[in-house]
Structures are given as structure tokens and as C-alpha cells.
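Try it yourself: sequence plus zinc ion, in.
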Amino acid sequence: MHVTGYRCTHCKREYAYSEDMLTCEHCGDLGILDILFDYTAIKKEFTRETLASDRTNSIWRYRALLPVEGHNWEQFLRVGWTPLYRSHALERSLGLKALYIKDDGLNPTASLKDRASVVAVSRARELGYKTIACSSTGNAASSLAGNASRMGLKSVIFVPERAPKGKVAQLLIFGANVISVQGNYRQTFELSAAAIEKWGFYNRNAGINPIMAEGKKTAALEIAEQLCFNPTDWVAVSVGDGCTIGGIYNGFNDLYKLGLLERIPKLLGVQSSGCAPFVKAANNNGKLEPAEENTLADSIAVGVPRNVEKALRAVRESFGAWVEVSDEAILSAMRTLGSTEGIFGEPAGVAATAGVVEALSKGLIKQNESVTVLCTGSGLKDVSNAMLAAGEPFSCPPDLHALEKSGRIGK
Ligand SMILES: *Cc1c(COP(=O)(O)O)cnc(C)c1O
Ligand SMILES: [Zn+2]
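Structure, out:
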């Protein structure tokens, strides 16, 4: 492990890398921590050459950059190394120089959250915990439950009652102790925090635990490596709590510090208009006000995000931008990705694609630029919203004549 310590994103105090610490002792919940790495040591074992000869097809190919020992990583669910597709059809219709889509719905529990959960499970084991807990809009929960189950840890999961059935089904199948909270995500988070404190579980709350963003940064490491360390001008990410986009920035920043990248891509933070506290904060000197959670993109319906500084910094320091998109634009992106690329994303999973369309129309992304969008989760978890996007099939009697008369099929 090449971790040298923590630094508070708020007051900049530094701390040793101890097991008990999740947030800054002075700043409380405002004091989200960064994990600091010894890049000089990492440089000696992590180069283009070592990567080129490493056949590990999971996030563990980047273990030099992870804040865990990663004992027995071969036994974990296989997380990461998801495909990066070039979309010729969409880049032509949008007029972009190049458009790539990274399909993180293909992770073992079908969302990008697996990147964080597998690292959290590794850390919990290293610290000797038997039970790991989190609150989640859905995907972090099912992801934690699956990754914990595989490694013999118990999981206690708090979800808001609006969590889609598919995600709750995953939780139950993975054998989690599921607490469905009669309230919104903020209330769910607060109940989980109180329970974790009372019973002393390992805390996988993405809003608090700095390891989560480090797990998620592997998506950026992969994008860079898959594009031969020449990433696109922009990388678009949907944003709820802010942990994912914060992690994506950390990943590119690591590679920049190691001399493996010449520049960090501009990050496009995408939120739903029904819940866009970051977009409003960016237009308000970074002052974040709680927002309603009023969108069908449940995974990014986070009215009180916790990773405020990490997310705002990611966009600011990469010279990126924030945009918001309507639920209609999200459903439209879902149809487009499905019908032109064969990629089935959930609403929050395709929001980044809708954001690229919006950023192009506002002139934030220029037509001669290149873009990668992150599809963060699979649409199979939330079939009712997919049907809302796609409509019902044609219902036909079992009769060829009737089928012909319907005009549904032509040469
Ligand atoms: C969690 C999640 C996001 C957003 O990640 P944050 O860390 O909450 O910003 C986006 N899409 C999907 C599918 C997610 O599950
Ligand atoms: Zn602090």
C-alpha cells in the first residue's frame, strides 16, 4: 500500500491513515477526507510497461493506486475492466469528433458502485470487521450486498422506500439485512449513520468514507488506459452524491501526477433538473442548498449531497462544466443508447449522455471536441422506467393474416 495519510478537503489538516477515521476531527461531516499517495514509490512499480504486461482484467490491475492491501483479490467478484465502445452513429449525429461510451452496467451487480464496494469489502476485512453497512439510493446497496456476500461478510442496508424493485430484489437475493426506510434519501442516510454508530459496523457510506471515491477512480484509470493514455477532451458523469465524479477526477489526477497523462479531461457534471443542487451551487459561488428529490433518475436523486467539495473541485479544476437535464431528455437518451448502441442504461446511467446533448446545445462542448460518457448502471434494475421510455410492444393475435394487415412488418 502506498498511502501516506489523509487530508481534509475543508481545513487541509493532515492525518495518519488510521482505521477509525472517516471525516476530519475538526470539521465533522463537512470535513470529507482525501487519501494521499506516495507517487514516487508508485512510479517505481506502476508504468505503461508493467500495465501492458499485466493480464488482470479487473480493478486490481491498479492496486498500486488503491488504499487497501487487497489480500486475495482474485477471490473477489470481478469488478471493472468494462468495455469502452466508440459510437460512430452518435458522434455523427451529434457532430462530435469522437464519442466513447463506457458501459459500467456490465459490472457484477450491474452498476459502477461495484468499484467502490469491492474496495470497501477489502478494507473491512483488513480491519477485522464482520459486518458492513451503508445507506443508498439503491445501487450502492445492492453492490455492497453482492460483494460482501461473495467474501463472507454480513451486510446491513438502508434504502429509501422508493428504491426500484429490481435493486431491492438484488439485495434480498444477496442475503442482506434490508431496512426499507419510510422517508427520503436524506432520512435514510441519517438513520444509517445513527445505526452504524450504535452497532459499530464498517461504514461504506459513500458520502463519508474516503475509500469509496478511490475505488470509483478506477473507471478513469481504465478510460485512460483504454484510450492509450490519450483521453477525450471531455468525460461526462452523472452526479448524485458527488463521490463518482470526485473519484473520476482523482483517477485522472493520479495519472497526471505519475506523468502518464499530459492533461486531465474536462469533466461534465450532469444532474437531473428535478434534483440539481450542484448545478445551483456552481452558479452560487459553491454554496450548496438542499434540493427536492424530484426525478425518476433515482440513483442521482440526492437532495443533500455529502461529497460537495470533491465534486465541485472535480469540475472546477478540470475546467469542466455543470448541466442539468429534464426527465424527458433522460428517457430520450435511454431510447437512443438502446436503439443505436445496444446499451441498456437506467435513468441515472444515461443521464450523462443527455448531458452531452445539452452541453453541445449550450456551446459548452464544441463540435470539434471528443467526449467519453460513463453509463453508470444497467436499465434492467428499473424496468418500469424503461417501459416509460420505450412504450408497450405491439400486441398481435397468433395469426399471420392479422400480422400482415397490421402493417407492423414490411421488407
Ligand atoms: C450512484 C450513481 C450515480 C452517481 O454517483 P454519486 O457518487 O452519487 O454522484 C450515477 N449513476 C448511477 C447508476 C449510480 O448508481
Ligand atoms: Zn478539517
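One thing you can check immediately is this: Residues 135 and 158 are 4 Å apart (CA to CA).
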